[in-house]
Amino acid sequence: MSSHGVTSVEVLGRLRNLREITLRDCDITNVDFLKGCSRLEYADVSYCETLTSLTGLRGLGKLKTLKASGTAINSIEHLAGCAALDSLNVIYCRNLSSLAGLSGLQKLKSVNASYSAIESIEHLAGCVALENVNVNYCKNMTSLVGLIGLEKLRTVDARGSGIESIEYLTECVALECVDVSRCKNLMSLAGLSGLQKLHIVDADETPIDSVAWLSGCVALERVHVSGCENLDSIDDLEGLPNLQMVDASHTAIESIEYLTECVALESVNISCCKNLLSLVGLRGLEKLKTVDASHTAIESIEYLTECVALESVNISCCKNLLSLVGLRGLEKLMTVDASHTAIESMEHLSGCVALESVNVNYCKNITSLFGLSGLEKLKTVGASYTAIESSSHLAECVELEIVNVNGCKNLLSLVGLRGLQKLKTVDASHTAIESIEYLTECVALESVNVSCCKKFTSLAGLSGLEKLRTVTASNTAIQSIERLSGCVALESLNVNYCKNITSLFGLSGLEKLKTVGASHTAIESIEHLAGCVALESLNVSFCKSLASLSCLDGLPNLRSLKANGTCVPPDTQLCHCPKLKDLVLR
Description:
Blueprint: E1 20-22, E2 42-44, E3 65-67, E4 87-89, E5 110-112, E6 132-134, E7 155-157, E8 177-179, E9 200-202, E10 222-224, E11 245-247, E12 267-269, E13 290-292, E14 312-314, E15 335-337, E16 357-359, E17 380-382, E18 402-404, E19 425-427, E20 447-449, E21 470-472, E22 492-494, E23 515-517, E24 537-539, E25 560-562, E26 582-584
Parallel strand pairs: 1-2, 2-3, 3-4, 4-5, 5-6, 6-7, 7-8, 8-9, 9-10, 10-11, 11-12, 12-13, 13-14, 14-15, 15-16, 16-17, 17-18, 18-19, 19-20, 20-21, 21-22, 22-23, 23-24, 24-25, 25-26
């Protein structure tokens, strides 16, 4: 049975055969009406915010599941006689300070009391069938003493709680997963030593200074110690045969050399380990797929040479890194982020036939894209603010979708993009290009940014591109936008500060156009916007020669219009633009 907004439920007490009841978010204060429901097995009274007592459940010997999360109860002592109880959820019970009532319930398997005010779990001591305990963010709880010796316990989630020790887990021989992350008072992982079935340990953002207690956990697959600022070594993970993932980012570790024998390792995150100088411990790990060593002090990635399964490498912001040697010929490598490094070349990527994404943004020493030639699966290239002079090495990258060469002051041409039929996005802003004629056959193109290209004079190259949605050409020397006339999907155009533009001819009839920025131009009229029925925002401020907005009256979707600094009369009104809310004329 289910109900919402119920206040009178006494009639339910007459249903002697009632087995399940759901009364979520109801205005009840107690469950006394259930006293006689001796066959009740399932009760859900979650988020009944006025519920303060579970007295009516006393002695219900067949009750198996109780959900009372988000209620105002301050005690569960009335569950003491519920011998069949196997699952209890009292999450977000802010008034609940004790689990008294659960002691000795021998069928109880799962307890979730997270975000409650409990101070102890000592009352779980005799719950011999217990498998899962969740007490995360129980700030008042300082100990796991009630879990000692529970031989069927598989999962403990105590993240964000006030616990100071986990030593009481020592005899929990079935334990598989422990989450004690963000426990600011936890100094040690003592208690986990030798647990043979332990698969996952999450101790992120704790003050622990060692992982020595994990050395005998032979089944361990995942270790999370990110943000443990006191941790200066992970040497004790040496030789763990099933270890697949290590996240030791934002720690004080200086070396990973002892990971060499962790032959099952697939993912390593050591980002922001400022003291880490070398990746020597990754040498020859044949199952390694992902490495994040960004923001470290490493000088080389040569030890990745034999990591034949490697798919993703992040070495961004490694200021001492000079070369990508170590990646050559890795045939499964799909993603490389080497942005903000001192590398001078990408030549070592030449044999990475599966490569899909390369980021070398802000690598100021790179002068060429050589190394990317012929990579047929390459989809994304980020080479902004590099010293590249040509895009020619991209010519055979037939899957290319995104190219960012923003801020490449020496780049003169986009010739390498000619005919790339899957290309969707090009950012060539702040470059020395004079033309985008080579984009003519890029039929999938959706977005082009050539802003602040001072030598750029024409949008020739965009004519008839039917999927083009966004064009940004502000602060350029273009004189016309007529080449956009066949761009039927165009939604956004920015030609602000294009001082040579005198007309918006080219926009007539573009029925999907939503945004136009043409401020600080020499336009004299906006008549060509009259049929742009989807237009929502127009900025023609400081167009000194513009005197009238009358052609906009009747545009049904126009919401914002800025025409200050023009010759448009300040009392102008657009009475037939029903959605216009922002009109700036002075």
